[in-house]
């Protein structure tokens, strides 16, 4: 019996999307030899059927992952990013400044999705999907520490007591002032980036991405699986204006993502 060529092509593309890192359109073109317009029709058909999705942060196509109890952490994170992506895009359209989704993983926050490409802000080459962010100094890290379950916070802080952070500023904040900082974060309902944080493990004098940020947790009955932020160039000194204009939008986005996960609430009370 003769096979259906269009279906064969779709299945071939779907198999190529199996890897978690995703594939760019050019990569799919080289591997399948299909014309790019044909590939785009296939990809959009798969997307409409809920079988594929395109990340905002890196523009790569990935196979959709079912979110279910017992799924592997990498698959859960991909599904989390897939659910969050349209909410981050909607927030960027409203606030103009972009947002990131960061997921707590092994004592750091890991970038899972970002709307920075939509905003026109220059992306630092380091800041790609999978980039790991300081827990003590970053706004998402502080949001996670402030709102996560006590046992998880204690485990993270015990880890850093035994393995001091590479950034000297992180180590100093950890030893003095962190408790008061987290209390303030809970009271105001959002976290802020440390003014001495340059966005990486190095001291700000060595590496500085030039951004400022606020962040809120994605709250679920089982904990804080991740956080979202709003970022803007620090030189504009806009923190108070961003909080006034867009904190509620940011918190509402966190709640919407939490609801998409099927686990309830999110965003931290202001």
TrEMBL record:
Q: Which GO terms describe its molecular function?
A: DNA binding; DNA-binding transcription factor activity
Which positions fall inside the IclR-ED domain? 65-263
Q: Does the keyword Kinase apply?
A: no
Share an example GO biological-process annotation for this protein.
Answer: negative regulation of DNA-templated transcription
What InterPro entries does its record include?
GAF-like_dom_sf, HTH_MetabolicPath_Reg, Tscrpt_reg_IclR_C, Tscrpt_reg_IclR_N, WH-like_DNA-bd_sf, WH_DNA-bd_sf
Q: Which Pfam families does this chain map to? A: HTH_IclR, IclR_C
Q: Alphabetically list the UniProt keywords.
A: DNA-binding, Transcription, Transcription regulation
SUPFAM superfamilies in UniProt: GAF domain-like, Winged helix' DNA-binding domain
Keyword flag Methyltransferase: no
Where does the HTH iclR-type domain lie?
Answer: 4-65
> PANTHER family under this entry?
DNA-BINDING TRANSCRIPTIONAL ACTIVATOR MHPR, HELIX-TURN-HELIX TRANSCRIPTIONAL REGULATOR, ICLR FAMILY
The name under which this protein is listed is Helix-turn-helix domain-containing protein
**To which species is this protein native?**
Zoogloea dura
């Amino acid at each position: 019996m003769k096979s259906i060529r269009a279906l064969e092509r779709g299945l071939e593309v779907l198999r190529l999307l199996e890897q978690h890192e995703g594939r760019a359109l050019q990569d799919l073109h080289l591997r399948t030899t299909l014309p790019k317009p044909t590939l785009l029709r296939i990809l959009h058909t798969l997307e409409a059927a809920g079988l594929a999705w395109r990340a905002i942060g890196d523009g790569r196509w990935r196979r959709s992952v079912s979110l279910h109890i017992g799924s592997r952490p990498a698959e859960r994170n991909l599904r989390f990013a897939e659910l969050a992506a349209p909410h981050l895009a909607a927030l960027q359209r409203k606030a103009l400044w972009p947002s990131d989704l960061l997921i707590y993983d092994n004592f750091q926050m890991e970038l899972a999705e970002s709307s920075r490409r939509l905003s026109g802000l220059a992306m630092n080459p380091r800041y790609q999907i999978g980039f790991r962010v300081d827990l003590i100094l970053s706004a998402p890290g502080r949001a996670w520490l402030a709102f996560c379950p006590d046992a998880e916070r204690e485990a993270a802080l015990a880890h850093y007591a035994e393995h001091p952070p590479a950034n000297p500023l992180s180590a100093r904040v950890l030893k003095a002032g962190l408790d008061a900082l987290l209390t303030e974060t809970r009271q105001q309902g959002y976290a802020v980036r440390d003014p001495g944080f340059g966005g990486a493990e190095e001291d700000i004098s060595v590496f500085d991405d030039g951004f400022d940020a606020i962040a809120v947790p994605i709250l679920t009955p089982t904990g804080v699986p991740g956080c979202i932020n709003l970022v803007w160039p620090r030189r504009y000194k806009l923190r108070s204006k961003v909080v006034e204009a867009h904190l509620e939008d940011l918190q509402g986005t966190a709640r919407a993502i939490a609801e998409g996960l099927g686990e309830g609430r999110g965003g931290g009370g202001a």
